[in-house]
Amino acid sequence: MRVAGGDRVRRLWAVWVAGALALLPAGCAAAPLAPSPASAVSTTAAARATQRVSPSATRTPAASGSALAAARQLPVKGRAPMTGYTRRMFGDGWVDTDHNGCDTRNDILARDLTGAAFRPGTHRCIVVSGTLVDPYTRTTIHFVRGLRTSTQVQIDHVVALGDAWQTGAQRWPTARRVAFANDPLNLLAVGGRVNQQKGDGDAATWLPPNKAFRCDYIARQVAVKRKYGLWVTAAEKAAMLRVLTACPGR
């Protein structure tokens, strides 16, 4: 059953993607390293849990941020080898890149879960429970922090780290890779099982089982690849265009 929390996350993502795409000029080169947008994760946990986009973002015309148009402009190249890739090339786990006192995993849990509860004495940073409507499967997951339960909800890199490594990230300095791995634009709380199934898949090899979310998912991938100047393979671009053709107004 779909609940209001899932609809809230989808609406936030749709506006966020439109705003991100609208701010990127056509044919833009790799963007310079910058901190994650302040609108992505608020400076207080309470604000993160009930986050709202800025008025300027909501006024962005949909056409100016068309994911379909942006996808058509993504550069196409072959994949670089995975040589040298490890998760540690993108930093040692979740860090506090926005300097709000909370690590990125807890920031995203606070953003995406409804009814989030926090561990006392952590300044509302450590999420101990909440409810997730997994956008990838439309299933409801009751999250409880613990050694055997925390993995039921995982934080997915919408553009997988392995995919990024093979499409430009291996040439970045370490600081840029850490920023990429902790950028809320590229992160979403999802069910652990489906996240493991995805692995490092791109649009050509994996799409969310929830077909209703595929436009939002691909639009987010396009926004991330544009922001960071990553390229796509021919098969990946074709898959993106197939999905976005069904929702040209995204």
What can be said about this structure in brief?
The chain has 250 residues and is α+β, with helices and mostly antiparallel strands. The protein has helices at residues 4-22, 45-49, 55-58, 67-72, 104-112, 161-166, 174-181, 192-198, 214-228, 234-245, and strands spanning 114-118, 127-133, 140-144, 153-157, 187-191.
Protein traits:
10 helices, three-stranded antiparallel β-sheet, 250 residues
Verbal overview:
- This protein has ten helices and five strands; from the N terminus they run αααααββββααβααα.
- It has 250 residues and is an alpha+beta fold.
- It has one domain (4-245).
- It has a three-stranded antiparallel β-sheet with strand order 1-2-3. It has a two-stranded antiparallel sheet with strand order 4-5.
Q: Can you summarize the main beta sheet?
A: 3 strands, antiparallel
Rg (C-alpha, Å)? 17 Å
Proportion of strand residues: 5-15%
Runs with pLDDT <50, length 5+?
1-5, 22-63
Strand order of the largest sheet: 1-2-3
Number of domains: 1
Could you give the count of β-strands?
Answer: 5
SS element count, helices = 10
Distance between the termini: 25 Å
What's the SSE pattern? HHHHHEEEEHHEHHH
SS-based class: alpha+beta
Taken from the alpha-carbon principal axes, the silhouette is globular
The portion of residues assigned to helices is 25-40%
